[in-house]
Amino acid sequence: MLNTASYQLLELMRADSSALRVQSHVVSDALVIDAGIDVPGSIDAGLLVTRVCMGDAAKVSIITEDADRLVSEIGVMVQTDSPLLACLGGQYAGWPVTAGKYFAMGSGPMRMARGREAMLEALQIHESPPAVAGVLESTDLPTTEVINVISNETNSPRDKVAIVVAPSGSLVGSIQVVARSIETAMHKLHTLKFDVRTIFSAVGLAPLPPPAKPSDVIGGIGRTNDAMLYGGRVTLWVDCDQEAIDAIADQVPSGASKDYGRPFATIFKDYDYDFYKVDPHLFSPAVVTIINRRSGKASRYGVINTDVLRQSFFG
Description:
Radius of gyration: 18 Å
Order of helices and strands: HHEEHEHEHEEHHEHEHHEHEHHEEH
Helix content: 25-40%
Number of helices: 14
CATH topology: Methenyltetrahydromethanopterin Cyclohydrolase, Chain A, domain 2
Mean pLDDT: 96
Strand content: 15-25%
């Protein structure tokens, strides 16, 4: 089970918290790890948190990038042979976790235990694990009330809940958000009514932006989104009729959106910082390659936008 694998990773993070520059807490009997709020976090912690998001069903690594094209000299690469479970079952941030004034976007395999998202229901993705684990994107640690919500909605005892928290602008947060290249492509394909269950392997890459200062939430969100929208590249291996790909493939990259072409922080501001007002077709990698095992055809769509990356990262 993905939840079991992620829970074990968070136990390892607690045991190695000093070296990883994270801090563990117990909140209402649950394990809560701060990976970027009151601590700096680390590169290794960022890679581990990404694995937690994906139920340890993917490999994640830091790679060297072409700085002339992608502005950053380093990037994040993700590869998986279980893209449906790792990306849509685990990594997708589909749970707005709220309790009182607390709000965080929740991802990780705990979503499968909750099982209340339309996408998970449509794809019949569910787990009934002995313990649950997940990731919260927030500048605050979860309260007792938040832990109670997660415990109740996943039907898990509080002492079998493990959570890691990091702001999007932190080092750990930047790594785990930029690592969502495959997930964004798959979610876009799902919204286009493509059968994502035919995707059997995937590799994704995106440049790692400089983190914003911890208090600059919008800056952190902007840079990590821009890394994906204007520098993300994904290759998907599928097994389906070629007509199913040809019908939608040119709509998959971010460039197909009417909001494409400006730094995300600027777009976000123009929509009064409301994600739901942004064109949903924007949230996708810059370049998508689809290789069809059945037809033997490879199709590549989209372009890298160096100008927007440079404006976002260093403007």
